[in-house]
Write a structure and sequence with these properties.
This protein has one domain: Glutaredoxin, CATH 3.40.30. The protein is built from six helices and five strands. Strand 2, helix 3 and strand 3 form a beta-alpha-beta unit. The longest helix has 15 residues. It is globular. The protein starts with a helix and ends with a helix.
Length: 140
C-alpha cells in the first residue's frame, strides 16, 4: 500500500522545485530513461532519514554548482510503486535501493549511488560525488 500523498508531497516537492520531473507510471519511466542521447539523473526518493538529511540536500547542492545533467527525473519509492520498479529496470546489476541516484549518458548507466553510499555520509559528501560525475559525464 503506497504512502499517503499528504505525507510524501513535501518530500517530492524538494526535488520537483529543483526541476525534476516526476515519473508516476511505468510509461513515464520508459519515456524518460529509454532515450539514448544526452545525460539524465534519476533520483529514487524515499521517506527515510538519509533521503531527508543527505540525499535530497546533496542533490540540491550539486545542482547549484552549474554543471548538471540535461534531464532530471525522480520516482518515489513507496508511492509511485510501478514507476519506481520500471525505473529500477534501467539500473541493471544493482538491487533496489531507496534512496538512490543514477546518472545515465547516452542511455548507459555511468554512475550509481545506492543507499549504502548515501546513509552515513553528509549532504556535502553526496554533492561532491555527484559533482564529480557531472564533471566527468555532463560537461559539454
Amino acid at each position: 500500500m503506497p504512502y499517503p500523498v499528504d505525507l510524501v508531497l513535501p518530500m517530492k516537492e524538494e526535488l520537483t522545485e529543483l526541476g525534476f520531473r516526476e515519473l508516476l507510471t511505468p510509461e513515464d519511466a520508459d519515456l524518460a530513461l529509454a532515450p539514448k542521447t544526452g545525460t539524465a539523473l534519476l533520483v529514487i526518493n524515499s521517506v527515510c532519514g538519509c533521503a531527508a538529511g543527505n540525499a535530497r540536500p546533496g542533490v540540491a547542492l550539486a545542482l547549484d554548482q552549474g554543471i548538471r545533467p540535461d534531464r532530471l527525473f525522480t520516482a518515489f519509492a513507496g508511492q509511485d510503486v510501478e514507476a519506481t520498479a520500471r525505473a529500477r529496470n534501467y539500473m541493471k546489476g544493482y538491487p533496489p535501493s531507496s534512496p538512490s541516484m543514477a546518472l545515465f549518458k547516452d542511455g548507459e548507466l555511468v554512475m550509481i549511488m545506492e543507499r549504502k553510499d548515501i546513509e552515513g555520509h553528509s549532504a556535502v559528501d553526496v554533492a561532491n560525488r555527484l559533482l564529480t560525475a557531472f564533471q566527468t559525464y555532463c560537461a559539454h
